[in-house]
Description:
This protein is an alpha/beta fold.
Amino acid sequence: MDALAPRNGPALWNPEEDEHLVCRAVREETHDVSTFVFAARSGGAFRFDPGQFLTFEFPVAGEPVYRCYTIASAPSRPDTVSITVKRVPGGPVSNWLHDHMRPGVAVKASGPMGEFSWARQPSSRARTLLLSGGSGVTPMMSMARTGFDRAEARDTVFVHAARTPLDIVFRDELDLMARRDRAFRTAFVVERDAPGVGWGGYRGRLTLPMLECIAPDWREREVFVCGPAPFMRAVGEMLAGAGFAMAHHHEESFDFAELAGTEKAEAVEAKAEMKREARVFRIEFAKTRRHVDCPEDVTILEAARRAGIRLPASCTKGLCGTCKSKKASGEVEMHHGGGIRQREIDAGQILLCCSKPLSDVVIER
């Protein structure tokens, strides 16, 4: 955790004792992106590493929905935390936030969690390259704000890719930081123009020649990447193809709709093996009236995915709590990584991503 968090000021926020955060402000960043600022209901200060995330419980359509959002603010300003969210067409949580979150509204939260932070990736390299696309700007912004607030003089190049000039989140603040800190440089890449807005910067998709122009020494930097899956994949392939030492490449993505390719292959192989040997239990989702067969050595989340049932999930490691669900009946074996509290377990909640059935199970979903 952040070693420079206040020691003699307010007590630190403890989600085990106070799980509620209260909205203090809503700030418009672009036409479809807003920042939501929260304070602990207890008044506690926040301690976290820049780049970590919180898991929220939102009351969407009368049902609890869990989502992970990276903290966009800096731990150097511990009185509040903020998340920055893009309104996604048809997205139940993003639209709920934009339509209903106002100052004074309280929501449940837990965390912070996550390893994607320059504070958690020690390196002998003194220079940093931050590459973000779209909403992937938020963990980078937390790191950049932290370095700026603390005058760390960290040699940082921040490259952000957006659809149009109007979609560049935090553009004014990043420009200000670059003007006032000689060790901090920014560059923006846009796919296309916006009506009535001139653009003289980089255009198209981020390419190796662009990167060479922006940061000629990029091969000698510690690289952090975050953004949509296609952006992440393209950047990773570009760096690896150029001979970059990928041990100095770190990535984070909250697009968890699909398993990684290697995970898919392992899942197919495991499915064939378990079909031959493992006991199989019936998993029923009560509200949707669907059911799946789940081998005893397969998590409930994985069995649902194989059956084509899409369930909310993020880390798939029992860390974030996104797949938290109420178990109405049955027994499971759960090995979580901190994404669920003991009192929630006592109340019948489980994490689908790390729960394997010991009997037939009914889930209230």
